[in-house]
Amino acid sequence: MSLNNTPRGERTHIALFGCRNAGKSSLINALTGQKVSIVSEVKGTTTDPVYKAMELLPLGPITIIDTPGLDDIGDLGSLRIERTHEILNKSDIALLVVDTESKFGSFEEDIIALIKDRGIPLLTAINKADLKQPPKEMLRAIQKLTDNDAHIVSAETKAGVEKLKLALAECVPETPDKLQIVGDLINPSDIVVLVTPIDKAAPKGRLILPQQQTIRDILEADAIAVVTKEFELRETLEKLGTKPKLVITDSQVFAKVSADTPTDIPLTSFSILFARYKGDLEALVRGATTIEKLKNGSRVLISEGCTHHRQSDDIGTVKIPRWIRQHTGKDIIFEHTSGMQYPKDLDSYELIIHCGACMLNKREMMYRIEQAKKIGIPIVNYGVLIAYLQGILPRCLGPIPGADLFLKD
User: Fold this and answer.
1) Do 143 and 216 fall within a single domain?
2) What gap in Å lies between CA 377 and CA 369, rounded to an integer?
3) How big is the chain by its Cα radius of gyration, in Å?
4) pTM as predicted
5) What is the CATH number of the domain that holds 324?
């Protein structure tokens, strides 16, 4: 996979924050060497968060996010500021941009407090140094609030920009080699069979993102990936001539794949692997067991991290509600969100069911899980839930060392 094709969920997310006309957009253009953001002397030019996936040496693949000004005004401005604050939930690195000619005040202090509260690495850049050197009291205030010296830069002349790039690279959260989708569960030359249904919901001409990423992870582990559909699985296993190390399936066909996979062959799903890779597998497994506590009138939130064209038998809006009603025999109320929407008020729900998060980065998925845990609302993802409803969750956790313990009180 080339750097240019790295999925957004696998990129380091760098978000720029600051007041209007602090030079956030100009600094993005200077950092990237491209005209990524529109630059204007008019305050409030950036009215919505702007995402740009790109490569930034020496960081590698990143998503850089330009945000509206923290000092935006009016009712619409308040909504924009709220949207800016929401960007923190997915930011791996925060870059606060201030202006040498402006006052360092409450807007900057408030965002610093929010950034530090979330434990996000923070850098500060004082822009427009070509026009005026920053006052000493501004430098002292930044050092006191952030525990770091500010970077003095000029987006216009590029002064200090290369040094800022290096500092950003040093802030990139470490991702240990052991943090893999499946590579740490297999050995070189192992055979892994992937079951990928091709139905009307499958994207034309390509595999869905989790399947692509898992295949790549298998190949990087020097193992062998064999891809088949659910109706050809039995024949595929017979023709292999050797027992595969693992079968990984799309969760929607769990029942058939489990029936066609001999019990001495380990089985799991893409979604369960992603629950471990991007989330908190233990919390998601424990969330599945609370399905038994649902009763008539219980409210359940089904949340997806992306927006897509829904088919007549959509997994989130049709299949999962149907399977839960069949399993519990209860009249349950289901509500749905997708994309960036994630309710702040989760108290009214008795369970949250989340997608596999292939389009979200780990920080955003963990934020969503932590919000649920903070108020004691159980949360589960699609694959874990479906395996539980099919009665095969213990088997599907088997390939992951220690995961079976999550089902025990």
Assistant:
1) no
2) 9
3) 24
4) 0.79
5) 3.40.50.11410
Round to whole Å and give the CA distance between 17 and 111. 8
Q: Could you say which of 171, 196, 225 is where a domain stops? A: 171
Please identify which residue in the block is written with the tokens 């609302």: 377
Low-confidence ranges of the chain (pLDDT < 70): 1-9, 35-48, 72-78, 80, 173-178, 199-205, 307-312, 409
* β 12-17/93-99 pair status: parallel
Q: Which residue has the tokens 């509500």?
A: 335
Tell me, yes or no, whether 176 lies in a domain. Answer: no
For 372, phi then psi, to 5°, come to -70, -45
Query: Encoding tokens for residue 102?
Result: 């402006």
Strands 60-66 and 50-56: antiparallel
Distance spanning both ends of the chain, measured CA to CA: 42
Q: Which residue in the block uniquely carries the two structure tokens 């060497």?
A: 33
Overall number of domains in the chain: 3
Per-residue DSSP letters for 295-337? -TT-EEEEEESS--PPPTT-IIIIIHHHHHHHHH----EEEEE
